[in-house]
Design goal:
Length: 190
Amino acid sequence: TGTFGQGSKRVLITGNTLCYAPLQGRSGFNVQTTTEKVVITGNIFVSGGSRGNIEVNSDHLASVVTDYNLYWGVDEQVMVERKDNTMSFQAWRELTGNDAHSMRAGPLFADTANHDFSLTDASPAVDAAAPFDSVRAMVARLEGTDWLLGRLDSLRQEDLNRNRRPAGAGADIGAIELGADPQSLYDFNR
């Protein structure tokens, strides 16, 4: 990463759940003008409706990779903010080639009123995150990311609650893996 003036470089943003209250908040992620070599995958971004899900102002757009995310909370026609303009999710896909596996759908959280952002069985985010090899390939296609690639092998395959991922056929999009067993069940040496 770098200073604000330099922008961030060689960044992986994955396994997050961001949910704004109605009519509040900003974009789920904001990629500044000098930011480059960033991969954003496996996240749930719920807009409060006052801003788009994505804001990407990077002058290095070809080095910003987004895929296997779930977006919700704002009209499809204004999901993306770019250089003080809005665009549809489809226009974003056509411009960048990004988000081929991402979806615009309600995440079906267990109980947002009580701040329970775990997924229900019916959530489209269940088993929908990128396989680890696909994440590695997304990072590898960007030049100068050897340092980040080296760190991927030490990335813990667990959710916010330290439960192992994947618990089902694949990892879930977002911070909490549905049906995951706590890591302590597999820690025989304590």
